[in-house]
Amino acid sequence: MLDFLDRFGEQGQDLGWTDLNLFGVHPVIGTGRVDHCGALILATKPAEWMDATRINLGNTTYSRDKPGMPRGVPIWAFKG
C-alpha cells in the first residue's frame, strides 16, 4: 500500500480515486466480502499502472464504479 501511494498517490488523487476505492472493506465483516473491498485491500502484487477507472495489479485489474457496486467503509474505520 505504501509503495502504491509513493508511486501513484498523487495521480490517483488527480484521477478521483477515493479512500473507499482503494482501502474499502465491508462495514461488518471486513475483508470477508470482497465485493466491498478496495483495490489495495485485494492486491497481491504491486500496481503496474492506473487510469481513471482501473488499476492493474499484475495478474488482475481492479475497476471502480461498476453499476451496483456496494460501498464499504475505509479499513481504518472498520470495527468488526
Notes on the structure:
The chain starts with a helix and ends in a 6-residue tail after the last strand. A 3-stranded antiparallel sheet has the order 2-3-4, covered by helices on one side. Strand 2 and strand 3 form a beta hairpin. Helix content is 28%, strand content 15%. With 80 residues, the chain is an alpha+beta fold. It has one domain. The chain contains 3 helices and 5 strands.
List keywords for this structure.
3 helices; 80 residues; globular; 3-stranded antiparallel beta sheet; alpha+beta; two-stranded antiparallel sheet
The main sheet comes to: 3 strands, antiparallel
Round the Cα radius of gyration to an integer and report it. 12 Å
Distance linking N and C termini? 21 Å
Secondary structure class reads alpha+beta
Counted up, domains total: 1
**Could you name the ranges where pLDDT drops below 50 across 5 or more consecutive residues?**
none
General form: globular
Instruction: Give the neighbour order of strands across the main sheet.
Output: 2-3-4
Order of helices and strands: HHEHEEEE
Separate helix tally? 3
**Beta-strand residue fraction:** 15-25%
Mean pLDDT: 93
Helix proportion: 25-40%
In brief:
Helices cover 28% and strands 15% of the residues.
How does the SSE layout of this entry go?
Elements: H1 2-14, H2 19-23, E1 24-25, H3 39-42, E2 49-50, E3 54-56, E4 61-63, E5 73-74
Antiparallel strand pairs: 1-5, 2-3, 3-4
